[in-house]
Write a structure and sequence with these properties.
There is one protein chain. By secondary structure, the protein is mainly α. The chain has one domain. The chain contains 4 helices and no strands. It is rod-shaped, with a radius of gyration of 30 Å.
Length: 99
């Protein structure tokens, strides 16, 4: 007997089922009938959503962006100091030239 090909589901579909399971407005058995999935899939997708939800708020990208912003602030302060120094040197050179 040939092996049955397992169904593949899109991430959007899995999210939809997981959110429905989290809302608990319907029993898991009702969700299984409604979405034509097994209870183990519903529980697995729901648990994955719960486990990975904190990644949304603590992403590496946000910490990288913060580090980049800090580096840019330091660079800006350094450039402002250099500009001020050059303005002072220019003013002194201008005053010296007038003599």
């Amino acid at each position: 007997m040939p092996k049955k090909n397992p169904k593949t589901y899109s991430p959007e579909f899995k999210l939809k089922v997981a959110l429905a399971a989290l809302r608990e407005e319907e029993q898991v058995t009702e969700l299984c009938e409604k979405f034509d999935v097994t209870p183990s899939q519903v529980y697995r997708w729901r648990n994955s959503l719960i486990k990975r939800s904190t990644d949304i708020f603590a992403s590496k990208e946000s910490s990288d962006a913060q580090k980049n912003a800090d580096k840019l602030r330091r660079t800006l302060k350094q450039l402002e100091r250099e500009k001020e120094f050059l303005v002072q040197v220019f003013d002194k050179a201008k005053a010296f030239k007038k003599r």
